[in-house]
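Technical annex, item 7. During the second reporting period the consortium partners agreed on a shared format for inverse folding records so that results from different sites could be compared directly. Each record opens with the tokenized structure and is followed by the designed sequence. A conforming record, contributed by the partner at site C, is shown below for reference.
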């Protein structure tokens, strides 16, 4: 009792440390005792408390010193809190690091040097220690083991280190555990006897090679049973199946019927309330076929028949009263005959066995040759249940390999044929490809990739050739191109040139395309000049034929490209139509053109008449102009009359057809011109009258101003202005201005402004002149 009191338990030490620290901080309360855990886990120098430990708010206020004291009292350096395991495929732990810089720990168990792992990323169950010990105690010398859920090496390391397994195929899909597994194998010096497969074991685990398969996953490994059975050798093996079982007290008491028929049941731990973690060791053997069943049944029947017949013979001999020695002699003869018969049968069966052995050797040789040719690995190397099974396996294997060889030869032939076609199209050497006969998957994949690349190259070059040839044929057709080159002619005439995709041919086509494109540019420029000439000629014909502007605009907008070949044809057609149109209406058009020229000359004469300078010209120019003007005035009515007669004649000769000018008839056009002319003249007359009135008003203002000035001077005794003379001079100036105005009745706006300005200046000039006269009179 004294010894127990002197050595307190870890829980008591923890409780004492917590109470002491809380008293020092002044936060202790008896309710905090419920927060102190009674159980925890220790990994290396880390203490893992349960999730409900130290969850009160009082502990959240404590600083790092509290956790250091906790770790020190439990002989640890780091502290963490562990929760429930995640329900994902990796069964990742929920660990929160409270004290410490990292969460990696090292475990030593059952003389396994080290289990290294990160407690926040990988799970390590202490409760599975009994199963790890059992795995280590198995005799697996020379055996191959497949661990479908290796983790950090829970069962892989015991099997390699203690059970002396020849080789372990370890599958793992958690990348965090994968690094730890690699490291643990190296630390325990067994990495050379283990191969790791990263990913889903249903896809990565090899087949037909394992003597044992470990299915260490919870809550059930049912989804992986088929994968485990495929991993076993053809002769069978053992499956170590983990799983959780509910409400199975009878199973825990070894009363479960699954213990029979080659099954062993092992209890590991309680996973939860009424949920037990169990492991079943299931011995698996290949299913017996109907032939074997019939053979065993025949043997049983034979023994029964022999026993019955020997008993019958013994009864007959007894009834015959044969002596015992004769009965023994006859029995010996019977046994001898049966023995001879069995010997013959054995010899026959040995012959069959020898035949099976030779077949197996033949099949093995063929299989090895095909595997070498196809670059495949031997799927099965191990024990068989007998020669029949072995012979059947190798026969099926040979059949599969021959089918695979046939498939690959067909694939190889297709690849080579297609590659040869593509190489020929591309103009490349194919001898290096065809000389290398190899049916390996790598070579076939390389040929497939090469075929894909060549097809893409052919496709791109064919597209380039199609584009170039389309442009070439379009330009040749438009230019009516001809050449003496046989190569160029063959290109022009060919319908499909994409069968030849060589680089040299592509360059030749591109060169011809560039040359033709240069000539096509010259052709386009020449056609553009021709089209411009045709457009100018077309405008001239339109003017001659007096075509309406709307009709001209409609024709031009109907042409999308005014320099195209189609537009040139339309220009020529329109010009031809206009020439025919002009010829059919030539008398009328010529008369109208003559009238229009005379009318324009009349307008020009009137414009020249507005210039007053022309009156100072000498040499009879005015007289000549007047004669020409009168001649024009005389001709215009006559030409108009002739035009009207020609129009009436044309209408009589072409009933139902119109003779328009700019959309209206010629008579209406002429009348409109004359009416517009008359309106313009009337407008000019009104403007002229307004200008004359403005001049008179300005002169009146000037005269009144002069009169006022003169009256002022009269009041001066020393000044006597000559009023009569000034008035006479002003009257003379006014008369001169009126004469000039009468001589130039048609005055433009500019001339009116100039005349108005000069008239406004006249009073000022007269004022200066009168001042000079006044001064001279005063001096006299």
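Designed sequence (site C submission):
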């Amino acid at each position: 009792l004294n010894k127990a009191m002197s050595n307190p338990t870890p829980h008591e030490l923890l409780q004492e440390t917590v109470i002491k620290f809380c008293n020092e901080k002044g936060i202790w309360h008896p309710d905090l005792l419920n927060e102190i855990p009674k159980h925890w886990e220790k990994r290396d120098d880390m203490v893992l408390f349960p999730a409900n430990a130290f969850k009160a708010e009082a502990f959240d206020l404590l600083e790092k010193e509290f956790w250091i004291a906790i770790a020190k009292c439990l002989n640890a350096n780091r502290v963490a809190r562990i929760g429930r395991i995640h329900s994902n495929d990796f069964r990742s732990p929920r660990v929160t690091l409270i004290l410490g810089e990292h969460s990696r720990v090292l475990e030593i168990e059952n003389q396994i040097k080290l289990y290294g792992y990160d407690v926040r990323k990988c799970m390590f169950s202490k409760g599975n220690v009994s199963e790890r010990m059992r795995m280590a105690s198995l005799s697996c010398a020379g055996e191959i083991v497949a661990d479908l859920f290796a983790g950090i090496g829970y069962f892989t390391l015991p099997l390699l280190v203690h059970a002396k397994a020849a080789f372990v195929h370890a599958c793992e899909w958690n990348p965090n555990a994968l690094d730890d597994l690699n490291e643990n194998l190296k630390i325990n010096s067994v990495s050379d006897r283990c191969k790791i497969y990263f990913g889903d074991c249903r896809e990565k685990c090899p087949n037909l090679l394992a003597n044992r398969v470990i299915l260490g996953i919870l809550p059930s490994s049912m989804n992986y049973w088929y994968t485990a059975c495929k991993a076993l050798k053809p002769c069978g093996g053992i499956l170590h199946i983990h799983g959780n079982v509910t409400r199975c007290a009878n199973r825990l008491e070894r009363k479960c019927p699954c213990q029979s028929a080659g099954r062993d049941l092992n209890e590991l731990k309680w996973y939860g309330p009424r949920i037990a973690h169990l492991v079943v060791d299931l011995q698996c053997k290949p299913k017996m076929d109907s032939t074997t069943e019939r053979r065993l049944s025949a043997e049983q029947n034979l023994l029964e028949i022999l026993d019955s017949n020997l008993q019958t013979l013994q009864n007959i001999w007894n009834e015959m009263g044969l002596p015992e020695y004769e009965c023994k002699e006859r029995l010996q003869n019977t046994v001898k005959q049966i023995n001879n018969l069995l010997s013959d049968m054995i010899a026959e069966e040995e012959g069959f066995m020898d035949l099976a052995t030779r077949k197996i050797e033949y099949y093995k040789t063929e299989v090895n040759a095909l595997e070498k040719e196809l670059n495949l690995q031997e799927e099965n190397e191990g024990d068989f249940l007998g020669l029949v099974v072995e012979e059947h396996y190798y026969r099926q294997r040979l059949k599969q390999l021959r089918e695979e060889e046939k498939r690959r030869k067909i694939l190889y032939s297709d690849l080579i044929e297609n590659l040869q076609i593509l190489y020929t199209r591309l103009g490349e050497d194919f001898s290096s490809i065809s000389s290398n006969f190899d049916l390996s998957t790598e070579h076939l994949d390389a040929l497939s990739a090469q075929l894909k690349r060549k097809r893409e190259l052919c496709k791109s070059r064919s597209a380039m050739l199609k584009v170039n040839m389309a442009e070439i044929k379009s330009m040749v057709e438009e230019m009516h191109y001809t050449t003496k080159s046989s190569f160029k002619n063959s290109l022009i005439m060919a319908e499909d040139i994409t069968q030849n995709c060589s680089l040299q041919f592509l360059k030749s086509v591109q060169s011809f395309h560039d040359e033709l494109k240069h000539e096509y540019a010259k052709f386009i420029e020449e056609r553009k000049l021709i089209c411009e000439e045709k457009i100018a000629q077309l405008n001239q014909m339109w003017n001659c034929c007096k075509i309406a502007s709307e009709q001209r605009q409609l024709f031009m907008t109907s042409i999308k490209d005014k320099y195209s070949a189609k537009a040139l044809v339309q220009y020529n057609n329109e010009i031809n139509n206009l020439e025919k149109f002009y010829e059919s209406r030539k008398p009328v058009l010529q008369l109208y053109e003559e009238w229009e020229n005379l009318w324009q000359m009349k307008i020009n004469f009137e414009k020249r008449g507005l210039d007053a300078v022309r009156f100072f010209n000498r040499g009879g120019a005015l007289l000549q102009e007047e004669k020409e003007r009168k001649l024009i005035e005389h001709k215009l009515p006559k030409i108009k009359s002739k035009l009207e007669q020609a129009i009436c004649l044309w209408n009589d000769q072409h009933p139902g057809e119109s003779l328009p000018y700019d959309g209206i008839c010629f008579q209406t056009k002429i009348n409109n011109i004359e009416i517009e002319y008359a309106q313009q003249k009337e407008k000019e007359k009104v403007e002229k009258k307004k200008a004359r009135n403005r001049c008179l008003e300005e002169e009146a203002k000037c005269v009144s101003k002069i009169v006022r000035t003169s009256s002022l001077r009269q009041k001066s005794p020393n000044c006597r202005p000559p009023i009569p003379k000034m008035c006479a001079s002003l009257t003379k100036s006014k008369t001169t201005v009126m004469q000039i105005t009468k001589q130039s009745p048609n005055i433009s706006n500019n001339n009116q402004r100039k005349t108005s300005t000069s008239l406004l200046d006249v009073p000022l000039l007269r004022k200066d002149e009168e001042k000079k006269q006044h001064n001279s009179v005063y001096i006299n």
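The chain is about 60% helix and 10% strand. The longest helix spans residues 324-374. All partners now use this format for quarterly exchanges.
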